[in-house]
Amino acid sequence: MTELRVVTVKLAEEIYQELALRIPEGDRSTFIRDAIAEKLQTTPKPDKLLALQQRITQLEEQFGQIQKYLNDLDILTFQHGKINPYQYAQDEVDRQIIEYLLNYKSATTPEIADYLKTNRWLVLNRLQRIEKTSQKQAGKSIIEYYAGERSGKKKAWWLNETIIQE
Is the model's pTM score more than 0.90? Predict the structure, then answer.
């Protein structure tokens, strides 16, 4: 057996009474040690969770590449099956940003931030992530940033209406 360490545990009174009733006084440390070891064997290791998360991310990227290749081959065209923009929203903030762009067709980052009553840097990061994710998965971005003037707006995010299903 390896070197033992002392651990202090606070238990609810009911649990302590049950432990005292069921386990003799000299065997309690061994019982608790065995219970912890048993519980640790059923708990996944963080490195395994990280590996699974990385594998899922890799699979998503590969799926996006397949969709991109199919789009390039015109097997899966934007005209026949338009893209649902909400599939790139990860949470409520993303959905609200997409909803705003669907309603107004374009917006500056400060306009969206005022609408959401949040930080414009958060909005900017979300817009960039949506743009990058849609570009990676669909081959075309559902939103795009245009720094020049377009329809009376400067430095605004525009919805790519040609590939969006409404």
Answer: no
- pLDDT tens-digit readout, 152-165: 888 899 988 777 75
pLDDT in tens, 55-110: 998 998 888 778 767 656 654 444 445 777 888 888 889 989 988 998 888 899 99
The whole-angstrom distance between residue 52's C-alpha and the CA centroid of its chain comes to: 14
What is the spatial distance between Cα 49 and Cα 62, in angstroms, rounded to a whole number?
20
> Going by C-beta distance under 8 Å and a sequence separation of 6 or more, which residues neighbour residue 136?
61, 64, 68
Question: What is the edge-to-edge ordering of all strands in the sheet holding 153-159?
Answer: 106-107, 153-159, 143-150
Write out the two tokens for 93: 């903030």
Among 135, 115, 113, smallest CA distance to 125 is for: 113
Structure tokens at 120: 């414009």
Using alpha carbons, list the distances in angstroms from residue 39 to 7, 35, 44, 51, 154.
16, 6, 10, 21, 59
